[in-house]
Amino acid sequence: MERGICIVVIAHNEQKLVWQQLDRLASFRQPDGCHVVIVDNGSQDGLAQSLKEQNEIDYILCEGGIENYAAILNTVVSEFAAKEDLLVLPPHLLILEEGVSRLKKALYQDGATGAVCAGSYAADPLRGKQRELLSLEAGACLLSAKLLQATGGFNESLKLPENIWMDLSFRGICSGFHFYEVPDACVQQAAQACNSYTKKYGADADRETLKKIWGMNYFNQYPNVSLLSMIGKKKTEPFALLEIGCDCGANMMYVKNTFQAASLTGIEINENAAKIAAQTAKVHVCDIEAGLPDFGNTKFDYVVFGDVLEHLKDPERILRECASVLKSDGEILACIPNLMHYSVLHGLLHGNFTYMDTGLLDRTHIHFFTYNEIVKMFVRNGYAIEKVLYTGQKETVSSQEKAFVDGLRRLGSGTEEFMYYAFQYLVSAKKVKTAKTAASAIRSLTSGGLKDGS
After folding, report:
1. Which of the 8 DSSP states describes residue 181?
2. What contacts 351, CB < 8 A, 6 or more positions away?
3. Which region among 111-120, 122-131, 224-233, 378-387 has the lowest average model confidence (pLDDT)?
4. Entry pTM
5. How many whole angstroms separate alpha carbon 76 and alpha carbon 5?
6. What is the mean pLDDT of residues 99-107?
7. Degrees (nearest 5) of the Cα angle 356, 358, 360?
8. 3-state secondary structure of 11
9. Angle at 44 between CA 42 and CA 50, to 5 degrees
10. What are the CA-CA distances from residue 294 to residues 308, 349, 360, 420 (Å)?
11. Is 356 helix (H, G, I), strand (E, B) or coil?
């Protein structure tokens, strides 16, 4: 049964945008049962006074300053939308004509859809079909009342909106709900998003709380598109893909959205992450260091390592074992951080090698690699390198950093410029039959630089 829609607009010093949003909503015919609630979240721009001077729109005033984002949304639900669906519409995103109606239609497409989001007005390569989402964001998102009831609403122990939405998304996925971006329900960005919570609390405000809730050090919500672009299949062509260390399934969801006939399997050691990823693919919960699980007679076209090999105690053994589950023309696709990046070398020359929670010196990295060592590792274990690309651009660095790299090149023997600018290497490798082929590949790739590089 379809419900009414409560549209909530939460604003902090965005009075002009709020009234622009309201004018936009009033100019379009909305579905029956729509009503708007404005939340003035500690503004000092006169929004509160302007809301008090009118009696047509419901509102909430946070007069003591910026209040907990999750608590605001839960209050809106309890006071204004207990039995309605909730459309969270930031003031800086102007919804286009028919946007609310199209979101509502998509929300009720089946019983498993828990929320839908409006697409960007900008061109999108996947435009024309719905794209399934791993994590919702605070941008023109329509949530079903049944999702909010099943999950218990928004988590008030978290401070930053992006983490509150991610946590709700993961709980929803674990409850069997699916989320989608609706391409024909568009929004237009009228201004930059307000980041008042990050300014107030800092970008890492929820790290320890999230670790306690989900048992994960960090969360991969976004796919490694650069790595997955190395899949050389047509959109409708069937193939089988195994991702080792699939985390919450961001990569596999991208493959699912892009390749209609792909068969997806994952391996993940973290049970919470595996439960989320299992909504997208068949996931084995196990430690890959203990050996590959039994896949029966299944062979894979691709085995994907997205920033995983550097975390393994014995990555070379794992690569050798993967040959047994690859098809004869199958490929390993791997994303591997580059220890030779100029930022790491700059730190070393100043006596520093400081581990962090994420990045090139992630404290959970066990092995470190350079371009030459990556090539030799693959070839040593029975693979021929098909292609090596890298992320990181020379154009984005400062003149001082470029001068530093020039100095490193003069000091290094047989090195090339890309070896210092590469942040991560993207590798495609196939099985080879003879050691002679492998030895030849080492010589050509380590002396000739990037093959099909970018």
Report:
1. E
2. none
3. 122-131
4. 0.89
5. 12
6. 95
7. 85
8. strand
9. 95
10. 20, 47, 33, 40
11. strand
Q: Is 424 helix (H, G, I), strand (E, B) or coil?
A: strand
Closest CA to 419 of 310, 335, 333, 339: 339
CA distances from 207 to 88, 247, 434 (A): 24, 17, 48
In the sheet where 282-285 sits, what is the strand order?
Answer: 282-285, 262-268, 239-244, 300-306, 326-337, 424-431, 383-391
What's the one-letter identity of residue 90?
A: P
Q: If residue 445 lies in a helix (H) or strand (E), which one and from where to where?
A: helix 435-448
Q: Is the dihedral of CA 168, 171, 174, 176 positive or negative?
A: negative
Give the amino acid at 272. N
Strand partners, 86: 6, 143
Residue 333 scores a pLDDT above 80: yes
In angstroms, rounded to a whole number, what is the distance separating the alpha carbons of residues 66 and 89? 18
* Contact between 231 and 259 (Cβ < 8 Å): yes
Q: How far is the first Cα of the chain from the last one, in angstroms, to the nearest whole number? A: 52
Any idea which of 69-83, 233-247, 427-441 has the lowest mean pLDDT? Answer: 427-441
